[in-house]
């Protein structure tokens, strides 16, 4: 006689979950999803491993993920070691020649390779590059007062499409090339938004260290419009590091991205829950 075992029941539960996920898996087949992985979202080795596993799984089910990373806390650590002072104006690091050298060394070197390695360990093909490679992100100076901080002006995404075809997951450090050969330091959120817009991505996921955008009562707002963001920024509910994030989301939508989501990158399976479940995760911002 056939008996219902615990293992069978587990299997049935898995099959149910899979069948629920199926429409979402189909919806994202071939989709481009740009994921901004911030320095605060990176956490410890275990969090990095979970993140990489989710990104590789995304690729295995037919999504084209693009990772744009930050690494502000890691840059701070190195600048401190080298005794170089650093300050932020409106969420952007004032960057001189000495600082940009450290930024490039830390982001394109240590942080970028750590992510690439984590992806390889999970069976994916991660390839690291920065906005300086293959004209990916040509920048203009943002503001003379900020020094070598750049605003992306032209993004050539040819290299990214070639990588999608080759089953490669691009891992991009937010540095850009100036028109006179300078190296520019670009805020990670800004870089992710510009690349997402240039790719006309289906989703821009901004991973951070809070569950989403909170209202004045401290509750996470699951759906947000541009008008609500403008109102909440004007009355101070959206402040600090959340300002560049929501601004990036709005600019990406203007640039043709279908939706942007702000979510907690340290939460287990955050990116998969956002894409492949009905409720998603974090705050979704759509046009209109
Ligand atoms: N309305 C808001 N909802 C959520 N977080 C907010 C809000 N306003 C300000 N913040 C702050 O923004 C921070 C996220 O920005 P930031 O620290 O720059 O992130 P990251 O380093 O991941 O790019 C949150 O940790 C929170 O302290
Ligand atoms: C111009 C500017 O501020 N660039 C950032 C680049 C790194 C970054 O954005 O890192 P997070 O995403 O971890 O904050 C910086 O120098 O810190």
Automatic annotation (TrEMBL):
Q: Name one Pfam family in it.
A: AA_kinase
For this chain's UniProt record, which GO biological process terms are given? L-arginine biosynthetic process via ornithine
Q: Which InterPro entries match?
A: AceGlu_kinase-like_sf, AcgluKinase_fam, ArgB, Asp/Glu/Uridylate_kinase, Glu/AcGlu_kinase, NAGK-C
Any single Gene Ontology cellular-component annotation: cytoplasm
Q: What is its main location?
A: cytoplasm
Q: Pathway membership of this protein?
A: Amino-acid biosynthesis; L-arginine biosynthesis; N(2)-acetyl-L-ornithine from L-glutamate: step 2/4
Q: Where in the cell is it found?
A: Cytoplasm
Kindly give the SUPFAM superfamilies that the UniProt entry links to this protein: Carbamate kinase-like
Tell me the ranges covered by the Aspartate/glutamate/uridylate kinase domain, including all copies: 32-263
**Catalytic function, reaction form:** N-acetyl-L-glutamate + ATP = N-acetyl-L-glutamyl 5-phosphate + ADP
| EC class name | transferase
Alphabetical keyword list:
Amino-acid biosynthesis, Arginine biosynthesis, ATP-binding, Cytoplasm, Kinase, Nucleotide-binding, Transferase
Record-listed E.C. numbers? 2.7.2.8
Residues annotated as binding substrate are 71-72, 93, 185
Q: Where is this site: Transition state stabilizer?
A: 36, 245
Q: Which HAMAP family match?
A: ArgB
Role this protein plays: Catalyzes the ATP-dependent phosphorylation of N-acetyl-L-glutamate.
What is the name of this protein?
Acetylglutamate kinase
| Species per Swiss-Prot/TrEMBL record | Pseudooceanicola nanhaiensis
């Amino acid at each position: 006689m056939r008996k219902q075992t615990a293992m069978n029941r587990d299997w049935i539960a898995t099959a149910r979950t899979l069948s629920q996920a199926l429409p979402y898996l189909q919806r994202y087949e071939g989709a481009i999803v740009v994921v901004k992985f911030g320095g605060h979202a990176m956490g410890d080795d275990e969090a990095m491993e979970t993140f990489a596993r989710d990104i590789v799984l995304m690729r295995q089910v037919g999504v084209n993920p693009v990772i744009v990373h930050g690494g502000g806390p890691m840059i701070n650590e190195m600048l401190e070691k080298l005794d170089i002072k650093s300050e932020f104006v409106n969420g952007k690091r004032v960057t001189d020649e000495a600082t940009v050298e450290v930024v490039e060394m830390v982001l394109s070197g240590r942080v970028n390779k750590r992510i690439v390695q984590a992806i390889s360990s999970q069976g994916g093909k991660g390839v690291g590059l920065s906005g300086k490679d293959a004209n990916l992100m040509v920048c203009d100076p943002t503001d003379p007062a900020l020094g070598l901080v750049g605003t992306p002006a032209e993004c050539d995404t040819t290299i990214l499409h070639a990588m999608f075809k080759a089953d490669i997951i691009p891992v991009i450090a937010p540095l850009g090339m100036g028109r006179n050969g300078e190296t520019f330091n670009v805020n990670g959120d800004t870089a992710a938004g510009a690349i997402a817009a240039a790719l006309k991505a289906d989703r821009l996921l901004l991973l951070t260290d809070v569950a989403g955008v909170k209202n004045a009562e401290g509750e996470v707002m699951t759906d947000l419009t541009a008008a609500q963001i403008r109102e909440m920024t004007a009355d101070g509910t959206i402040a600090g590091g959340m300002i560049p994030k929501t601004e990036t989301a709005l600019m990406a939508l203007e640039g043709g991205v279908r939706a942007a989501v702000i979510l907690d990158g340290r939460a287990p399976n955050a990116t998969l829950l956002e894409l492949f479940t009905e409720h998603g995760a974090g705050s979704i911002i759509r046009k209109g």
